[in-house]
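Reader question, answered in our methods column.
A reader sent in the components of a multi-part assembly and asked whether the whole thing could be modeled at once rather than chain by chain. We filled in our standard form and ran it. Here is what they sent:
COMPLEX SIZE: three components
ENTRIES:
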Amino acid sequence: MQLLGKVLFTKVGDEITGGMIVETEAYNGITDKASHAYGGRITERTRVMYSEGGICYVYLCYGIHYLLNVVTGLMGVPQAVLIRGVEPITGVDIMLKRRNMSHLQMRVSAGPGVLAQAMGITRVFNGKDLKGNEIWIEDQGRSFMQSEIAVTTRIGVDYAKEDALLPWRYYIKGNHFVSRR
DNA sequence: TGGGTGATGGACT
DNA sequence: GTCCATCACCCAC
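And here is the structure of the entire assembly that came back:
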């Protein structure tokens, strides 16, 4: 929830793009059945989630889409926040080009897979420091009232049974770049 | 070593 | 609403 309103930037080659984070989901380590680290699993893929917070966890989903997470826990505590939606601010034309679109509309960056595509995020970003010069997050002072933030269950985690009911999805009410169910 | 599956999105009926 | 592309990962053998 603290990430909402902050601005995520990436630099790929000479191309800089940035977008305000408008939708996130929390994944809570070893006790969360929806998390890749559920039960304390440590594998080559999930290893970065056990690092100190402040780095990226990027993985391939459904063989097609890259999903960007911010690792948030302490060393050894695998917690992460999935970025599900950003509102394009900087380098909008670059994002449109990557998405093969001609004009700005919500589907440019509403959803974790398309967001990664729009910002040029691939698996090479996995493990990168979020204070680096390839990907970083700026606090530009934008904040939201509690009443402007919606809290719901997470998307696409029905397999997690009772943990799918946890209210760990946060988004800016009314923002066009929030993904749909 | 092999098969089931997924933190999705787009195309199609 | 339904179908499915496409592959890394993971766990059971």
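What stands out: Strands of chain A lie at 7-12, 15-28, 56-61, 65-71, 79-90, 135-138, 149-152, 169-172. Helices of chain A lie at 92-98, 112-118.
Send us your own complexes using the same form.
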